[in-house]
C-alpha cells in the first residue's frame, strides 16, 4: 500500500479509537443493541402468534335450552360458553355494550326442525367492524361447522350410507417450507441490521476526516504536505472502511451469540447462524464496507460543516436499504444479474446462508466484484473531488 | 528565497490579487502587510499550492509552485490562517503525523520531534492530548508541524491572531531564531506594530496590488512619514486616491 494512504489511515483510526463517544456510537451501540432490539421484537412477535392460537374464545349462547347437545359440542370445541336468555333486541344491546362479544341465538323451532332432519337455523351475532369479534366469530363458525358435519356423518351412517359419499373432495395442505426457511422469513430483517450497523461503524470517521477536518482548520495544513491529494482521501476512506469491517465483525458475532437465546426451535424453526455461517456472512458483506466508506466520504466532502454532513449522511445511510426493500416487495428470487447490485447482493447471500441454501460460487464472485467495482468508482470520484480547490471551502 | 511576479487570481467576478510581485530573501523576515481582504491570504495560498494563479509566476528556491507543487511543498513550511490540530492526538503525535507525511520515520522522526519540542518549549504538554490546549499551545504545535521537515522557507498567515501577549512574544522569538538560522520567513499581518517589530522587509498590499515595498526605513523615507504607521496610511491612501 502507498505509504501516504497507510499513514493517513492509521492516524484516522487512532483518533477514532481514542474518542470514547465515537467508539460508543460506531462500535458498541450498533453491534450490541441492534441484535438485542431485533431479538426482543422477534420474541414478542413469536409470543403473540402463539398466544393468538391458544386464546380462549368466549361465546354467549341465548336460549340454550332448545339445544343442549349443541351447547355441549361448543364446549368440547374449547369455547368458553356463557348461557343467557334474551331476544333479538336484547342481544344487539349486549354486543353494543361489550367489545369482542359473539352471541349464538338458538331459535325456538331449532329442536323441532333438528329432530325432523330439516336444516335447523342458528343465528350468529357479531360486530363485523370489530376485528376481535370477527376473529372470535370465525372460531365459533368453525366449531359449529365441525358439529354440523359430525351430525351429518351420523345421519348418513344411520341410513346405511358411508359418510365419505358426502365428501367428494378432501383438501390436505402440505407445508413444504423447511424450518430454516420459515425462520428466514422472520430473520429477513437481519440483513438490514447487518448492513446498517456496518455503515454506522464508519459513519463518524467519514464525517470527522472530511467535514470535521475542514471545520477544525487542519485540512489546509494537511494539503500542504508533499502527497497527492487522492492518496490523502483514499487513506481516509480506507480508515472508514476498516471501522466498518470491525463493526461488521462485531455485529455478526453478537447476532450469532444472541440467536442462541431465541427459542426458535419451539416454533418449528431453526436459525442457521453458527460460527461457519457467521464467518461466511462476514466475508460476503466485507466488500460492502468499501462502498459504504467511499459513499459516505464522497457525500461528506460536499458538505460545508460537521452538522450538515451529519444530516446528509443520515439520509444517505438509508440508500443501501432501498434495493433490499424493493426486492422484498417484489419478492425477487436470487438471480445472477441481481448479484451485481451492492447491498441487494449481500442481502441475498445472507438470506441464502441462513436458509442453508448454497448459492453458486460464481454468483458470490459477482457480488464481490460488483461491490468492489462500485467502491473503487466512488473512491476515484472522491479523489477527483479532493483535487479541486473548492474542497477547502470558504 | 521566494520570488513572486505578476500574480493574478480571481474568484468569480472578484479579482482577489492583480499583478502582485515581490521578493522575500533568505535570512530575512518579510511582512505582507495590508488591511483585511487585501489579498494577503490569496497570495500565500498560491505560494503554498492550494490555489492556482490565473496568471503570473511564483517560485520557492527557484521551484515553480504551479509546475512542481510537490517539490515546492517540500521546500516550505506552512502555518495557515486557521491552523487547527487534531484533538485526539498528543502534541508529539500531531507533529509526528506531518513528519511521516513528509517521509520521515523511525528514530530520525523521533529525534526531530524531540528537537522541536525543545526549541518551542513544549515539554510540559508534549505528551498530552491536544483537546484542551490553549490557543498559544495550539499555535506552537501547528508551528512545529510546519517545521518538522526542516524547510528553508516558512509561510505564516496571520500567525499571532488570537494569541495572548506571552504567546505572541514566544512566537516572535521563534521567528527571529529562524531568521538567524538563515531561513526565509514570509508572514502576513494586518497589525502594523507586529510587522514593525519583526520585519526586515515590508510589502504593503491593498486591493490586490502591491502599493509599496521596502525596508521600514525606506518606506518612511518614501512617504516622508515620521512613523511606519504614517507611511502605511500614506501608501494605502495614495493607492486609493489613484483609483
| Widest sheet, order of strands of chain B | 6-7-8-3-9-10
Task: Report the helical percentage of chain A.
Answer: 55-70%
Instruction: Count the beta strands of chain B.
Output: 10
Given the structure, what is the number of helices of chain B? 9
Shape of chain A: elongated
List low-confidence stretches of chain A. none
Intertermini distance of chain A: 33 Å
**What is the mean pLDDT of chain A?**
85
Shape, principal axes of CA atoms of chain B = globular
The share of residues in helices of chain B is 40-55%
Rg of chain B (CA only): 18 Å
Question: What is the string of SSEs of chain B from the N terminus onward?
Answer: EEEHEEHEHHHEHEHEEHH
Strand order of the largest sheet of chain A: 2-1-3-4
Oligomer category:
heterodimer
Q: What is the SS-derived class of chain B?
A: alpha/beta
Reported for the largest beta sheet of chain B, the result is: 6 strands, mixed
**Which chains make the largest contact?**
A-B, 24 and 33 residues
Order of helices and strands of chain A: HHEHEHEHEHHHHHHHHHH
Provide structural commentary.
The complex is a heterodimer of chains A (394) and B (243). Chain A has 394 residues and is mainly α. Chain A has 15 helices and 4 strands. Helix content of chain A is 67%, strand content 5%. Helix content of chain B is 40%, strand content 26%. Chain B is built from 9 helices and 10 strands. In chain B, 47% of the residues are buried. Chains A and B meet through helix 1 and helix 9 of A and helix 2, strand 6, helix 3 and helix 5 of B.
Write the layout of secondary structure elements.
The complex is a heterodimer of chains A (394) and B (243).
Chain A lengths: L2 H16 L1 H35 L2 E6 L5 H9 L2 E6 L3 H10 L5 E3 L4 H6 L7 E3 L5 H28 L20 H9 L1 H28 L2 H4 L6 H30 L16 H28 L3 H11 L4 H10 L13 H12 L5 H27 L7
Chain B lengths: L1 E10 L2 E11 L3 E6 L6 H8 L7 E6 L2 E2 L4 H7 E4 L11 H11 L4 H14 L15 H13 L5 E5 L7 H16 L3 E6 L2 H7 L2 E6 L2 E6 L1 H7 L5 H15 L1
Helix pairs in contact in B: 3-4, 3-5, 5-6, 8-9
Amino acid at each position: 500500500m502507498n505509504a501516504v494512504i497507510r499513514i493517513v489511515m492509521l492516524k484516522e483510526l487512532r483518533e477514532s479509537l481514542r474518542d470514547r463517544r465515537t467508539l460508543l456510537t460506531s462500535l458498541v451501540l450498533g453491534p450490541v443493541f441492534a441484535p438485542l432490539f431485533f431479538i426482543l421484537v422477534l420474541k414478542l412477535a413469536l409470543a403473540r402468534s402463539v398466544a393468538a392460537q391458544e386464546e380462549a374464545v368466549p361465546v354467549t349462547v341465548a336460549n340454550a335450552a332448545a339445544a343442549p347437545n349443541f351447547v355441549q359440542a361448543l364446549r368440547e370445541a374449547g369455547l368458553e360458553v356463557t348461557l343467557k336468555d334474551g331476544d333479538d333486541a336484547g342481544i344487539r344491546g349486549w354486543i353494543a355494550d361489550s367489545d369482542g362479544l359473539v352471541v349464538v341465538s338458538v331459535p325456538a323451532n331449532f329442536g323441532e326442525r333438528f329432530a325432523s332432519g330439516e336444516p335447523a337455523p342458528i343465528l350468529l351475532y357479531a360486530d363485523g367492524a370489530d376485528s376481535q369479534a370477527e376473529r372470535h366469530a370465525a372460531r365459533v363458525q368453525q366449531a359449529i361447522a365441525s358439529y354440523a358435519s359430525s351430525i351429518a356423518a351420523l345421519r348418513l351412517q344411520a341410513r346405511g350410507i358411508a359418510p365419505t359419499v358426502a365428501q367428494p373432495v378432501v383438501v390436505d395442505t402440505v407445508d413444504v417450507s423447511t424450518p430454516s426457511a420459515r425462520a428466514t422469513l422472520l430473520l429477513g430483517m437481519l440483513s438490514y441490521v447487518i448492513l446498517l450497523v456496518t455503515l454506522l461503524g464508519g459513519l463518524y470517521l467519514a464525517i470527522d476526516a472530511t467535514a470535521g477536518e475542514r471545520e477544525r482548520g487542519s485540512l489546509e495544513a494537511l494539503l500542504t504536505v508533499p502527497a497527492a491529494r487522492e492518496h490523502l482521501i483514499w487513506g481516509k476512506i480506507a480508515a472508514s472502511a476498516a471501522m466498518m469491517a470491525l463493526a461488521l465483525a462485531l455485529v455478526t458475532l453478537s447476532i450469532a451469540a444472541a440467536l442462541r437465546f431465541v427459542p426458535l426451535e419451539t416454533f418449528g424453526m431453526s436459525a442457521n447462524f453458527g460460527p461457519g455461517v457467521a464467518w461466511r456472512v462476514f466475508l460476503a458483506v466485507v466488500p460492502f464496507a468499501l462502498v459504504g466508506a467511499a459513499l459516505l466520504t464522497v457525500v461528506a466532502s460536499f458538505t460545508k460543516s460537521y452538522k450538515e454532513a451529519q444530516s446528509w449522511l443520515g439520509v444517505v445511510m438509508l440508500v443501501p436499504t432501498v434495493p433490499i426493500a424493493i426486492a422484498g416487495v417484489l419478492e425477487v428470487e436470487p438471480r445472477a444479474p441481481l448479484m451485481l447490485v451492492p447491498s441487494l447482493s449481500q442481502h441475498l447471500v445472507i438470506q441464502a446462508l441462513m436458509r442453508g441454501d448454497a448459492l453458486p460460487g460464481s454468483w458470490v464472485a459477482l457480488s464481490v466484484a460488483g461491490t468492489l467495482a462500485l467502491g473503487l468508482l466512488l473512491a476515484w470520484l472522491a479523489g477527483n473531488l479532493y483535487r479541486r480547490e473548492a474542497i477547502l471551502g470558504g | 528565497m521566494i520570488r513572486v511576479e505578476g500574480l493574478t487570481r480571481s474568484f468569480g467576478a472578484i479579482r482577489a490579487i492583480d499583478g502582485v510581485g515581490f521578493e522575500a530573501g533568505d535570512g530575512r523576515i518579510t511582512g505582507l502587510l495590508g488591511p483585511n481582504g487585501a489579498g494577503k491570504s490569496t497570495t500565500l495560498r498560491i505560494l503554498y499550492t492550494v490555489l492556482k494563479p490565473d496568471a503570473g509566476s511564483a517560485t520557492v528556491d527557484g521551484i515553480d509552485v504551479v509546475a512542481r507543487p510537490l517539490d515546492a511543498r517540500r521546500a516550505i513550511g506552512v502555518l495557515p490562517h486557521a491552523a487547527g490540530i487534531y484533538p485526539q492526538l498528543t502534541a508529539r503525535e500531531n507533529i509526528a503525523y506531518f513528519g511521516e507525511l513528509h517521509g520521515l520515520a523511525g528514530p530520525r522522526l523521533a529525534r526531530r520531534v524531540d528537537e522541536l519540542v525543545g526549541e518551542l518549549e513544549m515539554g510540559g504538554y508534549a505528551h498530552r492530548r491536544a483537546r484542551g490546549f490553549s490557543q498559544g499551545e495550539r499555535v506552537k504545535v501547528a508551528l512545529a508541524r510546519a517545521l518538522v521537515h526542516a524547510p528553508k522557507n516558512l509561510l505564516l498567515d496571520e500567525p499571532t491572531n488570537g494569541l495572548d501577549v506571552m504567546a505572541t512574544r514566544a512566537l516572535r522569538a521563534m521567528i527571529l531564531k529562524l531568521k538567524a538560522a538563515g531561513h526565509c520567513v514570509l508572514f502576513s499581518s494586518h497589525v502594523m506594530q507586529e510587522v514593525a517589530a519583526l520585519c526586515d522587509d515590508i510589502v504593503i498590499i491593498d486591493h490586490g496590488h502591491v502599493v509599496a515595498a521596502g525596508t521600514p526605513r525606506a518606506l518612511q523615507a518614501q512617504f516622508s512619514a515620521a512613523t511606519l504607521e504614517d507611511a502605511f496610511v500614506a501608501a494605502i491612501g495614495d493607492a486609493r486616491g489613484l483609483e
